[in-house]
Amino acid sequence: MAKLSFERRRNYGMQKVDRRSEHLGWIETALRAGNPDLPNLALFGLAHYGPSHCLAFVVVSGVARDQVRRRQLRTEANDLLRRLGYAVEIEPGRDVYDLVPIRPASSHERLRMLRDLLAACDPGS
Predict the structure, then answer these.
(1) Closest by CA position to 85, among listed 121, 60, 119, 113
(2) How far is CA 48 from each of CA 44, 51, 92, rounded to the nearest angstrom?
(3) How does pLDDT run across 42-52, given as a tens digit for each residue?
(4) What's the mean pLDDT in 96-117?
(5) How far apart are CA 71 and CA 116, in angstroms?
(6) Where do runs of H (alpha helix) occur along 1-125?
(7) 74 three-class SS
(8) Please, are residues 113 and 25 in contact by the beta-carbon 8 Å criterion?
(9) Are the CB atoms for 5 and 13 separated by under 8 Å?
(10) Taking a C-beta distance cutoff of 8 angstroms, is the pair 65, 73 a contact?
(11) 27: Cβ–Cβ under 8 A, 6 or more apart, which residues?
C-alpha cells in the first residue's frame, strides 16, 4: 500500500481527527511571540471526555504571580480557540483530562505554526 501524505492520513476515513493539542501549540507559540518578556509562558488545556471541538479550560503558566496578566493571556487564548471553532466552557460535574500542546521543534516549525494560525483565524487572507 502506498504511503499517504500527512494531510491525507489526517483526513482519511470518516473519523474527525482531534487537533486540539496542535491548535493549543499554535496559540502558545503566538502568545510567546507576542510576549517575549515571558520566556517560560506555557499553555495546557483541560478537556471533557466527549466531542473534540470542546475544551473545558485553558491553564496559563510561566507568568509568575501576575494574576491580571495571566487572565489577559487566558482570555486571548480562549478567543483564538473560539476563532478556530472550539467551545471553551467548563461543565460542572464532568471529568476532565489534560491536553498538552504540540510545541515547535525548530524555528521553521514555529514560523509555520504562526502562519497556520493566522491563516485559520483570518480566512480572507
Answers:
(1) 121
(2) 14, 8, 10
(3) 999 999 998 89
(4) 95
(5) 25
(6) 6-11, 20-34, 67-83, 107-121
(7) helix
(8) yes
(9) no
(10) no
(11) 43, 77, 80, 81, 101, 117
